């Protein structure tokens, strides 16, 4: 019988009750970073077991930075506080499991820039960098697949009553074979990239 390759090294998982880890707040920061996948020069890579199996910590984090192509940059999208959510859910049949990443955001008051954004990303592969309220970042998108605007969001609505919010609600989805946090750059990506970034 052939020897089974051990890709991951299992370990005990405690309650993460160290002083730094006791803070745990739900929700996401009401500003995400986004851009077209075609403008990305270098993507972070998935961790790979070499001579030793991956520790659980290493198995859960992408390696490297997201770097934009020369002359391009990523952008920010600020949305209404306490309206955004980000989820990673298992999906697929046995032997074909993957993870569905979903971002939901709501922008109060429908306006032309929001409608223009919807037009610009309709049918396009985009990436998002999402920060949760515990300071952890997540990346939606990779070199082969991007996040796409879902057709089942509530879209733009005026509301029916004076007390209801005029708003646009958007949903983006991205599937990946594994689930990761992103520990790379989130600042330089917002500046127009100079030459030498493309690989």
Describe this structure in words.
By secondary structure, this protein is mainly beta. It contains 2 helices and 13 strands, in the order E-E-E-E-H-E-E-E-E-H-E-E-E-E-E. Strands 7, 8, 11, 12 and 13 form a 5-stranded antiparallel β-sheet that branches. Strands 6-2-9-10 form a 4-stranded antiparallel β-sheet, with no helix packed on it. Strand 7 (85-91) and strand 8 (98-108) form a beta hairpin.
Question: Which key terms come to mind for this protein?
Answer:
199 residues; mainly beta; four-stranded antiparallel beta sheet; 2 helices; 7% helix
Indicate the radius of gyration in whole angstroms: 19 Å
- Number of continuous helical runs: 2
Rounded average pLDDT: 93
Number of strands: 13
Distance between the termini: 42 Å
Please state the overall shape, judged from the principal axes of the Cα atoms: globular
Helical proportion? under 10%
Low-confidence stretches: none
Compact description:
The chain is mainly beta. Helix content is 7%, strand content 31%. It is globular and about 60 Å long.
What is the strand and helix layout of this fold?
Blueprint: E1 8-9, E2 31-36, E3 40-42, E4 54-55, H1 56-59, E5 67-68, E6 75-78, E7 85-91, E8 98-108, H2 112-121, E9 126-131, E10 137-140, E11 148-149, E12 155-157, E13 167-176
Parallel strand pairs: 1-4
Antiparallel strand pairs: 2-6, 2-9, 3-5, 7-8, 8-13, 9-10, 11-13, 12-13
């Amino acid at each position: 019988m052939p020897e089974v390759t051990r890709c991951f090294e299992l370990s005990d998982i405690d309650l993460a009750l160290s002083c730094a880890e006791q803070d745990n707040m739900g929700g996401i920061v009401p500003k995400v970073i986004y851009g077209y996948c075609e403008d990305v020069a270098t993507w972070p890579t998935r961790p790979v077991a070499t001579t030793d199996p991956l520790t659980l910590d290493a198995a859960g984090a992408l390696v490297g930075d997201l770097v934009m192509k020369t002359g391009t940059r990523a952008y920010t999208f600020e949305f209404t506080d306490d309206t955004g959510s980000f989820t990673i859910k298992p999906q697929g049949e046995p032997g074909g499991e993957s993870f569905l990443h979903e971002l939901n955001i709501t922008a109060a008051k429908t306006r032309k820039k929001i409608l223009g954004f919807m037009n610009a990303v309709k049918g396009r592969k985009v990436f998002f960098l999402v920060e949760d309220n515990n300071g952890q970042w997540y990346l939606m998108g990779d070199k082969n697949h991007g996040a796409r605007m879902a057709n089942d969001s509530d879209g733009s609505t005026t509301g029916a009553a004076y007390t209801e919010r005029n708003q646009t609600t958007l949903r983006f989805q991205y599937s990946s074979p594994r689930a990761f946090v992103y520990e790379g750059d989130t600042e330089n990506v917002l500046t127009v990239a100079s030459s030498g970034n493309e690989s």
